[in-house]
Write a structure and sequence with these properties.
2 strands; two-stranded parallel ribbon; alpha+beta
C-alpha cells in the first residue's frame, strides 16, 4: 500500500498508525483542506475528481467537509488507466 499523505509543514497532514490514518484524523485533514486551504463557502459547488484506485474514505471525507460548510460536493470518478497507456 502506497501512503497517500505525507507530513507537510503547511498542511500538517501526517501518516499515523503504520501508514493508515484513523477516520477522525482523515476527517480533520479534509476539514483543513476545505476550510483553510480552499476556503470553500456556503453555496459553492466543489468538484472532487477520483479514479477507481482512489481511496473511497478519502473522497468521502472531502465530500463531507464540503457539505458541512454548506457547499455542494460533486464527485466524479473515472476509470484508472494502465501505466504507460494513453487515450
Amino acid at each position: 500500500m502506497i501512503p497517500r499523505f505525507r507530513y507537510n509543514e503547511a498542511t500538517k497532514f501526517e501518516i499515523t498508525r503504520g501508514g493508515k490514518m484513523l477516520k477522525f484524523e482523515l476527517q480533520k485533514a479534509a476539514d483543513k483542506l476545505i476550510n483553510e486551504i480552499f476556503a470553500v463557502k456556503k453555496g459553492e459547488t466543489v468538484v472532487i475528481t477520483a479514479d477507481t484506485m482512489s481511496d473511497e474514505g478519502l473522497v468521502d471525507a472531502v465530500a463531507a467537509s464540503v457539505y458541512s460548510v454548506g457547499g455542494f460536493p460533486m464527485v466524479i470518478t473515472i476509470a484508472t488507466q494502465a501505466e504507460g497507456k494513453s487515450g
